[in-house]
Design a protein that fits this description.
Blueprint lengths: L15 E4 L2 E5 L3 E7 L5 H12 L9 E3 L5 E7 L2 E7 L5 H8 L5 E4 L4 E7 L3 H8 L15 E5 L2 E9 L2 E7 L3 H15 L1
Antiparallel strand pairs: 1-2, 2-8, 3-6, 3-7, 4-5, 5-6, 8-11, 9-10, 10-11
Helix pairs in contact: 3-4
């Protein structure tokens, strides 16, 4: 029997481009892990999150970081958050589960999503063309997260700083999503 070796490939092949005032790159080694709160387990999960990461549980629409700044927790809805961090291996859910001492239900999401980072002085202008939410700094500062749609595709968006945003969208429509963001960038230059 032949032996095959499978090698994971990024959805967009490691895409990275610079435009006039905007940079756009695929985040290839980013792990995304869903954490759901068990019924009646809010206090135990909150204590484990604080103990393991030095972080509070995020409210829906809010994001916070671990004490070391390595992991971002995105409040996706009641009793659900995503942990997003740099990690290239397939056992990210086990890593998070072990740190939280199994006080939450963890599910690896990395293979379902493509992540793009858009940055630069015109990044907000480009996103405002395709996003129905108010991305003004006063309305959507760092520490925010939202589920929205861009060009009819579902997107999770959060600002890292005043000029940098991370966009997370479905792997299955990665190329269409990239095209929509690129087109919007080109339209504001």
């Amino acid at each position: 029997m032949s032996e095959y070796t499978l090698t994971a490939q990024p959805a967009l092949g490691g895409y990275s481009e610079s435009f006039d005032g905007v940079s756009l790159e695929e985040l290839c080694d980013q792990a995304t892990v869903s954490i759901a709160t068990p019924l009646g387990g809010e206090e135990a999960l909150a204590a484990a999150l604080q103990s393991a990461y030095g972080a509070d549980m995020p409210s829906p629409g809010k994001a916070n970081q671990s004490a070391d700044g390595e992991t971002r927790f995105l409040g996706m809805g009641p009793d659900q958050m995503f942990a997003v961090f740099d990690y290239a291996k397939a056992d990210a859910a086990e890593v998070v589960g072990d740190k939280l001492k199994d006080t939450g239900y963890v599910t690896l999401q990395s293979d379902n999503w493509v992540s793009l980072r858009i940055s630069g002085p015109k990044s907000r202008d480009a996103l405002e063309r395709i996003s129905p939410i108010d991305l003004a700094p006063a309305s959507f500062p760092p520490g925010s997260v939202a589920r929205t749609a861009m060009e009819h595709m579902g997107v999770i968006i959060y600002p890292e700083d005043a000029e940098t945003f991370v966009l997370i969208s479905a792997w299955s429509s990665a190329e269409s999503f990239l095209h929509a963001v690129e087109t919007s960038i080109q339209n504001v230059l």
